């Protein structure tokens, strides 16, 4: 009877798997703060992506881990950089049946770990960063991404990406905007996953956890600039934000269950302190109940299998 009257459902197609691919790797490399998650080699990425698709996930969000990083994140704009090369691999392997997404941000590619380039005072330079995002967008779309995920929280990033795509004739490539992204401690393990050491903090461009109206304003701007989907991130500590964004947005809303949310449950489960599967599914259904149409989660493949 409970199953019959349940108000919320989680379906495999609503789950998006974030994946990491490491330049030059010949074997998958474990991410110690995210047990079960790896930095893939190009080969193991292809295989794991096929498994995710067979489990029924709706899409894949890809992050690249370059061997060399520099001040301007050159590896991100290079059409042969690791992220773009791996996008090409995956598009070749998966075709058009699975939505392929790419992280459009500089922090994986910069030696200072910021999401943009820095000015002479060491602050992130919003507008100088935008022109790099425009180049990255074209490179990622040409490499085969169906949806680009600008995640750097630069003002105007969605508009600039849309304009660059249209100017290059890439009119079918969509934008999943990280609209409401908080300066969160829950991104901690992600730094290990992309081998990023951050100098300073992200307080000049990511949001204060105390704010919800700010998220509505950020989302409204992204919608006006051409976002096809909007995202709230992290998820579990921001369920009210997901609900608020759901209510004001007429496009699909995604939520990102981030690295720290994953690590928290894995660590407690490893100690036998909570029931792993029940805890994972409870968070996923709660994020859906809050209003997310899609959930990015490192458990996507496994959860999709449980749901079948
Ligand atoms: C930025 C980006 C980050 C994450 C996704 N995209 C890091 C950040 O903004 O600090 C975090 C994802 C996670 O923690 O799982 N490229």
UniProtKB/TrEMBL annotation:
Mg(2+) binds at residue 218. Keywords: Heme biosynthesis, Lyase, Magnesium, Metal-binding, Porphyrin biosynthesis. Pathway: Porphyrin-containing compound metabolism; protoporphyrin-IX biosynthesis; coproporphyrinogen-III from 5-aminolevulinate: step 1/4. Its EC number is 4.2.1.24. 5-aminolevulinate 2 binds at residues 259, 298. Homooctamer. This is Delta-aminolevulinic acid dehydratase. The gene is hemB.
């Amino acid at each position: 009877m409970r199953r019959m009257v349940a108000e919320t459902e989680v379906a495999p197609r609503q789950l998006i798997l974030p994946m990491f691919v490491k330049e030059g790797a010949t074997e998958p490399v474990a991410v110690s703060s995210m047990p079960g998650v790896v930095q893939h080699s190009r080969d193991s990425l292809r295989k794991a992506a096929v498994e995710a698709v067979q489990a029924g996930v709706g899409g894949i969000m890809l992050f690249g881990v370059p061997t060399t990083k520099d001040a301007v994140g050159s590896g991100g704009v290079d059409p042969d950089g690791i992220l773009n090369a791996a996008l090409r691999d995956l598009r070749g392997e998966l075709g058009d049946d699975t939505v392929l997404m790419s992280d459009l941000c500089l922090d994986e590619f910069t030696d200072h770990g910021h999401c943009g380039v820095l000015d002479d005072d060491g602050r992130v330079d919003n507008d100088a960063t935008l022109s790099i995002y425009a180049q990255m967008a074209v490179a990622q779309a040409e490499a085969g991404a169906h949806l680009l995920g600008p995640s750097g929280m630069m003002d105007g990033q969605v508009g600039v990406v849309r304009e660059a795509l249209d100017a290059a004739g890439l009119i079918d490539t969509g934008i999943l905007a990280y609209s409401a992204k908080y300066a969160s401690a829950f991104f901690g393990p992600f730094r290990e996953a992309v081998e990023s050491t951050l100098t300073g903090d992200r307080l000049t461009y990511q949001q204060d956890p105390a704010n919800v109206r700010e998220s509505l304003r950020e989302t409204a701007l992204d919608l006006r600039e051409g976002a096809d989907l909007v995202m709230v991130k992290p998820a579990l500590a921001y369920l009210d934000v997901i609900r608020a964004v759901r209510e004001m947005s007429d496009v699909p809303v995604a939520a990102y269950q981030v690295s720290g949310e994953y690590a928290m449950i894995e660590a407690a489960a490893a100690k036998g302190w909570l029931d792993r599967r029940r805890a994972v599914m409870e968070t996923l259904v709660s994020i859906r109940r809050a209003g997310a149409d899609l959930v990015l989660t490192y458990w996507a493949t496994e959860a999709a299998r449980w749901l079948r």
